[in-house]
Amino acid sequence: MLTYCSFIQKGDENANGYALHKHYHDYLYGFPIHHDDELFCRLVLEINQAGLSWTTILKKEAAFRAAYHQFNMAKVAAYGEKDKERLLQDAGIIRNRLKVEAAIYNAQIVLGLQQQFGSFKKWLDHHHPKTKQEWVLLFKKTFRFTGGEIVNEFLMSTGYLPGAHDEDCI
Question: Which ranges in 11-131 belong to alpha helices (H)?
């Protein structure tokens, strides 16, 4: 079976996106994130990946950061119609109305979680550990545009679910 780790180890260095994937895998994937804006960033990127390749998202990450004010949740939570339209016209990001609206709504929700738990990370820690199914139910109840695969990848990529790296992964 070809896993993410074996793809990175055996990948063709000339393959489209290999360097982006390798850097992401070696330094970011499966490692805890302690800053709430970066956790929010990862959630938004995972939501935007739905139906697309992760390479596409990695190539657009800088544009996402610029478009969403470096994922400053207070700013994103305050976005209005002008901001939605600006995002939907930005060719550097994924221009999907449901995904844009989910980012804004989810920023508002995370701000509420911060007030209640002290941080987004503390909210995640409060619920950890859970099974994938339990996490999916919690995320669907709490956020928008968070299906099973999105929740799985978000939690695996941030270290809350196992499976990000094989035992023999370098």
Answer: 18-27, 36-49, 54-67, 73-77, 81-89, 97-117, 120-127
